[in-house]
Amino acid sequence: MRFNKTHLFVFLAGAILGLCTGFFSGKAIYDKPVIENVTRDTVTFHDTIPDIAPMPKDSTRIKWVTRWLTMKPDTITQWETLTIHDSVAVEVPITSKHYSSKDYDAWVSGFEPSLDSIKVYQRTEYITERVTLSKPPNKWELDAVAGIDYNVTTQRYTPHVGGELLYKPNRLQVGIRGGIIRNDKAEPFAGAVVRYRIF
Prior knowledge:
This protein has one helix at residues 5-30, and strands at residues 35-52, 58-70, 87-100, 105-110, 117-134, 140-151, 156-167, 172-182, 186-196.
């Protein structure tokens, strides 16, 4: 197989085209932004925090009130002439008490008030975040091809070798193909490629 100047020019042009195509297609692949998919799962719990017989933080006497109390028979002395229906005025102190912790604030008031117990139903949310990093699919494809064709009419085998550059926006694929085909002698060939992916 002999090469002339035309063959040498085709080889050099193909090499330059291949280098440029490989550079720009590779740059396009690695310069594509990374797609970040974030999935969040939220689980909510209600924790019960009991506080039995809490101690007040402060106590303040806020006022006095007058209450009338009925005298009992056994409290009447021999010098008193009160009946069972007699009453006596009593000054009662009203006190306000403040109970607090990191989970609650409570106020109670009255005569000798006290907070027996308190339950705090604290809401807690646990958020699990899953981050998935992925790149968008590459729409360019550069392939090296080689094969042998059989011509039914001439009953001859024709080997060829070359490459093809495809653009794949979806199932449709378009591109160009070029290389060397061997008939009686090695000859360059070039052409367009149109494909449609069924599966």
